[in-house]
Structures are given as C-alpha cells and as structure tokens.
From TrEMBL:
A helicase/nuclease that prepares dsDNA breaks (DSB) for recombinational DNA repair. Binds to DSBs and unwinds DNA via a highly rapid and processive ATP-dependent bidirectional helicase activity. Unwinds dsDNA until it encounters a Chi (crossover hotspot instigator) sequence from the 3' direction. Cuts ssDNA a few nucleotides 3' to the Chi site. The properties and activities of the enzyme are changed at Chi. The Chi-altered holoenzyme produces a long 3'-ssDNA overhang and facilitates RecA-binding to the ssDNA for homologous DNA recombination and repair. This is RecBCD enzyme subunit RecD. The gene is recD. It comes from Nocardioides lianchengensis. It holds the Pfam family UvrD_C_2. The keyword Nucleotide-binding applies. It comes from the Bacteria. The lineage of its organism: Bacteria, Bacillati, Actinomycetota, Actinomycetes, Propionibacteriales. Heterotrimer of RecB, RecC and RecD. All subunits contribute to DNA-binding. ATP binds at G179, G180, P181, G182, T183, G184, K185, T186. Its EC number is 5.6.2.3. GO terms for biological process: double-strand break repair via homologous recombination. One of its GO terms (cellular component) is exodeoxyribonuclease V complex. Belongs to the RecD family.
Amino acid sequence: MTETFEPVGEHDWRLAASATGLLAEFNAAGLLSAADVHVATRVAALGEEEDERVRLAVALAVRAVRRGSVGLDLAAVPAIAPELAWPEAEAWAAAVAASPLVAAGAVRWELGLLYLDRYHRLETQVHADLEARLAQAAPGIDEARLDAALARVRGGRFSPEQEAAVAAAVRRRTTILTGGPGTGKTTTVARLLALLADQATGSTQRREGRLSIALAAPTGKAATRLQEAVAAEVAEVGETWPEVAALVGRLQGQTLHRLLGWRPDNATRFRHDRGNRLKYDVVVVDESSMVELTMMGRLLEALRPESVLVLLGDPQQLTSVGAGAVLGDLVAGYDGRPDSPVAALTRNFRSTDDILALSVALRAGDADTVVEVLRTPSDEVSWVDTSEEAEVEAALRPDSLRAARAVWAAAVAEQPALAIEELDRYRLLCAHREGPYGVRRWNQRVERWLAEEVDVDVHGPSYVGRPLLVTSNDYALDVYNGETGVVVQQGDRRRAFVAGSGRLKEFAPGRLDAVETMHAMTIHKSQGSQVERVTVLLPEADSRLLTRELFYTAVTRAQQHVRVVGSEAAVRAAVATRALRATGLQQRLRETGSAP
Ligand SMILES: Nc1ncnc2c1ncn2[C@@H]1O[C@H](COP(=O)(O)OP(=O)(O)OP(=O)(O)O)[C@@H](O)[C@H]1O
C-alpha cells in the first residue's frame, strides 16, 4: 500500500522550499505535504523547539489528523515507510516528551500518542462527557408500567434480542445500539421511544409528562430514513396501542448540523453548546459510525446531562471522513465494563443469505471465505475477477446503462416519483473519485453509453434523466448532503426533484449548485443508504483507499444482489488492510473502567 507521493521535479507544489533537515527529507520522500511542514515549522518556531526530531513528529501529527487519526502513534509510524531514516525510537519519544512544545501545551504527549492540542481537548472532552453521563444515577423506572408497555409493543418487527436491548436502554441515559446492516437498529427506535414516552407520562420528573424527542443523523438521507422507520413502526405499534402515536408525537428527522444549530459564521461551532443546551429529553442519532470526533464533542457538550442519548450504528463500517473513529472506540473501549452502555443486535433481517455470508467473512477478515463466497455461483453475489480495462467496461456497461435508461425514461415521461424510485434499484460504487477506477470516469462513461442509446444530450448540468447527489447541506434550499434526485421534464421546462423526508422537493436545476452526477458514487458517500442491486468496482490492489471497512461498507449497501468487479489480488488486499486510526479514546475508556 503506498502512502507516499513521488515529487515531480524540484518545483513540485507538494515540496516546501524552506524545509531543512529531517523535514525536508521526509517531504522529499513524499510522506509529508508542504502544509504539514509549514504547520510544524510554525508551531516549533513559536514554542522555540530546535530539535528536528520533534519538528518531524509534529509534522507527522498534522499528517495523521489529515488522514483521520486523532493523534500520531509515534511507535507505529515508521512502519508506513520503513525505507526512510527514522529517528531512533526511544530517543525520539524522550525528545518529544521533553519538548518545550509539550510543556507549553501546544502539543500533548499521552498514551504513546502525540496530539495537536485541539484534538487532545476534543478527545478528553468526549471521554469526560461520556463518563459523566454514565456516572449519573439511573433514571427512576416504574417497572410495572414498563412490563405492561413491553407487552403492548410485542409482536410485529420486534425480536427477543431487540426487546432485551430496548428494555436495557429504558434504564439508562446513554445507549449505544450496534449491529451489522439489517439487524433492525433503526426499526427498534420507535418502540424504545414509546416506552420512554410512556414512562414519562407517569413521571413527575419531566415537564408536562410529554417527552421532547430529536431524531438526527450525520446526513440528510440517513435522517429521513430514521424518520420514516420510526413513523412506520409507530403506526404498527398503534394497532395494539392506539395512544402510542400521540405519546411519541410526529417526529422529523434532521441532520446533526441542524439539530445543533448550524451557524453561517463558524463551521465547527454551533448555536447549542454547554451554555445553551438542547432542550430535548431524548436524542437519537442514527449512522453514528459516520460521526467524527469534532461533531461528537459538540453533540455531547450540547446535551442536557439528564437527557437520554441513543447512538445507533455499525462499528465495522467506514469511519467518518473527519478525524476519529468514535463509534468503534466506544464499542471496544466499553467492552467488558460492567457499566457498558453498549447493546448489540446480531440477527440480520434484511440481507439474503449469500450477501450475509460475504459480509460475515469480511467482518472476520477471512479472505479465503470471502473469495469462496464470491466464486460460488449465486443469485445474490457475483464476481467479475478482472482489472483489465476492457473487461471492466464490458462488466459495468449492461447494468449501469439499464439503470440510467430506466431513470431517463421516467424523467422523460415526466414522472419524478418513478425516476427517484428507479435510482434506488441500482448503484455503481467506486472507491476512488479520480483515475481509472474513479467516479468521475465512470460517470462520463455511463453518460456516453446513455447518449449512444437514447436521444439525450448529456453535455451540460441539467439534462433530462441526470441522477443527482447533493454534496452539502443547504439550509436555505432545504436540501442536505447525501440526498438524491433527478432532473425531470415538466411540460416545456426541466425541474430537479430531490427526495426529502416523505416528499419530493422541486427546484429549477440551476439553483442546486452543490450536486454531482450519480451514475456512479463513491463508497464513502453511499454510507447509510440501501440499494437493491450494487456493483462494487475495486481499484488496483495497491490503492491506499482499499480497506476492509471500505469493501464491507460497499457490500452491505446491497439488498438483493452485489456484484464485485476487481482482481483477486484487490479482494485480498481489501480484506487484509484495516483502516486503522490512531486515537486514544478507546484506551481512556478502558482505563476509567478498570480504575479502582
Ligand atoms: N424483528 C424484526 N422482524 C422482522 N423484520 C425486521 C425486524 N427488525 C427489523 N426488521 C426489518 O429488517 C430490515 C432492516 O431493519 P433496519 O433498517 O432497522 O436495520 P438497521 O440495523 O438499522 O440497518 P442499517 O444499519 O443497514 O440501516 C427492515 O426492512 C426492517 O423492517
């Protein structure tokens, strides 16, 4: 796996002209970017640190954050480029520990990790807030009332495992509900809310007996799914418990950004914080694996201590784009602690057997079984074992074109709802954005194939049938990152329709500027969504993006069929490579758990 770049000549923009010594060496070797070098040089100058080994460590810590870690694992870092002349390990750690930068608090040295101060503050805050939540007295529960309510929510989509998780969650202020895809995490939320609301009606602790509940997720799409799942389950429970809808209320899903109060003047601070807490009694966050450390920190500080927090997610999925691996750290860090707030669901209700077998083998890191499942003929899993461009193209064309045609046909027929429905029938997922295996190339290819087959001019941003992916939150327009849409003919005009919570939002296509074409999509962006048929295009085995978490996330998007296109070497490389991030949260949670 390559983690370095090769500078093209001495004027390469990635080289810092002013760098000297170790910084220059590691920059020229392609491990550090010019920005890493500049930040380290500036921090070192301010803190009067002369030791070039410490400067190197600071630059590597900047790089580590850029790549998703919270701190730099000093002992592990030489393994990423063993050919370089690394400082001697013990002396290096001693120099860092004794640095005036550490003494001044510009960087922190703890748990074998070198932290930039901001990330250290965030991680220790998240840890402290979580521990404070766990240390509170449990909420008072009316057990007889709980038993009666449990009896009323039984039946329908509610397994004994889900019931046990819900019954435990009612007794806590913090619950982390984990499980693989399709294990019914989202489905479980409605019944948990019903039980909490029911307890509240009998309680004098909460205002007017009525709970205020927030449903949130990192993306708009995931928030919509949560809202819809809760509404569907509330309706189901309502058949045996007619008052339940009134108890829970009509709930809207929202993005975490919106929940916390997005501010136009500040990208990392929100209206709600420790001085202006969220008013909700219960906050549910779906797809928590996508929540980065910064956002988790902001959420925890904004919650009232006595409120109930429910985090749902699959810790095996790709971690957040930003730094941190919070959900994975929480699950591992609480493991074995008697006060653990983690409840795990294991039974899969969605995937077909072979997709399930593939995802189980992936979770276990069992490459031989992954290859065997892929090779075994099945209606649900198939494999085109190749990385030859012509073969890749031949493999991708039929399904991608069929899907694009179906969306286009609905769009031409002025049927926006049908066009949006067609979007979720098939998806081509790529690891990369650029290059031969990237989204950009395959988007263009599919457009070309479509233009060869039907009467459409795919040039320009608003051709009829163009599938859209919203790439950032736009509060003014009410469209959110991750939402999908299509450009549709409407009489003599073209309109863009975006699928929102239970309704279609209509725009003049030119008004949506943060959108991409979605004939192909990155696996990162596909997190939190489900599609009937998925094709996963794997890059070459040495791609630095190719990891087990990435492959697992792609495979588990499929409801009915997943097809993998890529070489056996790429499949094996994906299984063998973990997207490990250096963070200290897990260890902090373990240590508090074992403290006397
Ligand atoms: N106890 C159950 N019995 C039958 N079907 C169930 C049960 N629980 C959930 N389901 C169904 O299984 C499917 C997956 O459920 P859900 O979306 O809640 O899973 P999830 O764990 O949130 O999945 P993901 O993380 O992939 O979004 C849904 O179609 C849901 O209706």
